[in-house]
Write a structure and sequence with these properties.
The structure is a homodimer of 313-residue chains.
Chain A: E1 8-14, H1 25-35, E2 40-45, E3 50-54, E4 57-61, E5 65-70, H2 76-87, E6 92-100, H3 112-122, E7 125-130, E8 138-143, E9 155-161, H4 165-169, H5 179-185, E10 197-202, E11 208-214, E12 217-224, E13 231-236, H6 243-254, E14 258-266, E15 279-286, E16 291-299, E17 309-311
Antiparallel strand pairs in A: 1-5, 1-6, 2-3, 3-4, 4-5, 6-8, 7-8, 9-13, 9-14, 10-11, 11-12, 12-13, 14-16, 15-16
Helix pairs in contact in A: 1-2, 2-3
Amino acid sequence: MFFEGPEKKIEIALAPGQPSLRARGIDYWKEIVAKSRAQILSSVSNEHLDAHLLSESSLFVADQWLTMITCGRTDLVAAVLQLCADLGPGQFQYLIYERKNAQHQEYQPSNFFDDARRLSEAMPGKSFRFGDGDDHHVFLFHLDKPYAPAADDVTLEILMHGIDPQAARVFMSGPQRKKEFIREKSGVWTLLGPGFQVDDHLFEPMGYSLNAIRGVRYYTVHVTPQKIGSYVSFETNCVEDDVDETISRVLDLFKPQSCDVVLFQPQGARRKVRCRYPIKRAVRQSLACGYRVSFDHHFKPVEGAAPAFEIVL
Amino acid sequence: MFFEGPEKKIEIALAPGQPSLRARGIDYWKEIVAKSRAQILSSVSNEHLDAHLLSESSLFVADQWLTMITCGRTDLVAAVLQLCADLGPGQFQYLIYERKNAQHQEYQPSNFFDDARRLSEAMPGKSFRFGDGDDHHVFLFHLDKPYAPAADDVTLEILMHGIDPQAARVFMSGPQRKKEFIREKSGVWTLLGPGFQVDDHLFEPMGYSLNAIRGVRYYTVHVTPQKIGSYVSFETNCVEDDVDETISRVLDLFKPQSCDVVLFQPQGARRKVRCRYPIKRAVRQSLACGYRVSFDHHFKPVEGAAPAFEIVL
């Protein structure tokens, strides 16, 4: 059974003086998540952040901002529109909706153009495609409103397709595969900085999700190890001067056939991203909402030719 | 309005001793083409081959074989199933159905898996994917029956995405744009060998198709110059020892952002394909129906980074 790992993501920051998002309580967030057709499986909290593991990816809620990521056949925009209705769209200072190109768009309830039209009915926005239309790309819709991200507001995404079969095997479920086994064997926990509180989940029959938080910083990793359509996403807002090393360590673990590296940073910052895989496409765009976004599509070079993949119907 | 240039293709060879396909006459082929949701626009013939230009691509009919290519939102498999019903599937010695990954699969009436299931109900077959599932690829279904292609039965496809805007402009329609203009300015006619009979069509508001035949040899070129989703396919069975030069000349004309080069040749032949663009993936597969198929995905290297593409809803 095919599972669509590539995600949709929303980031929202409230306008100054709005009531806390966290204070709305878990039942409210359960309803919002349900709107997207997902469920909250478990949660961890610290003094700044609630991190919810979802049946399809993750939700992080702070007092003044949230990040929600969903995969599979979810409808993240429905959750956003519910938030708009509840909070009033004028209460957002910043909103960005990002969507990775799907492997099987025909199994999705909507495409990006549908999504952007629905969002546009609720707020003024601009839409972009980063990357070639016939190749890996991410779509992005943002609320067209000035915003000034803090100097340390940097988010790194590493979106990986075609996971090394041996690396993927660790994430398959079964009687021998416990969370402890993954923690020990997968190496994912070695990617986290010190002092992070972790919540992880092993899906049946396969798949793995991890949230980790420390203060306002988070890591989130989602592994779709399926033989067909294998995919891993790694995302963090804990970006120091070690971006290149982080990318390198993530690629060492998953050895993907290809990866897209996406970096959001405040305009004016000129953090560079390097990856040891060869590059096929690079896109740089400053957005009217204060971020500069980079998208790089990389691929693993192969020696010689491979046989075709036989499809069993 | 988005137009899906990437094609579906069928090749059929009759078992020995079957009545001529050409002898079925133009009205029969009009019906078959209509089954796929396309129409015959014009036709040219020689003593071996009828070449029909379609509203969506091309149909070549010889006495004992045919090649049909359709793009857009056509349903080529419906035409194949009609042929099966009319001729009896046992009368095919060889059948191959090929489908390029679509840019907007969600707008298609079926995906390859649907197609292969429908074909499998009519005949025993095998299915393959050439290229990564998350990247450029072609799917292929073939009738699982021994076949021995002639030594000179070689077919070259060059499937190009992201056409150079200046090259694409020549194919836009309008009051100044006549077929003569295209013939003179596009350079497409310089790709044809000497002595080919040509039939071409300029679509409104844009787009261009060309069939050219000489004996049993054909060229077929289809240009989707649209700014969003620009695409050109070039295909020929007129493959001498100049494959590399042909590829080079085709790329010179269209300067695409990426291209897939597909070559069918008899097993045992070991014709190599070279392309001056860097290569991302190479696939080689010998099929139980007697062909060896190569698929190479190439891309145009870019200097530095590009801005994001702004989407106007």
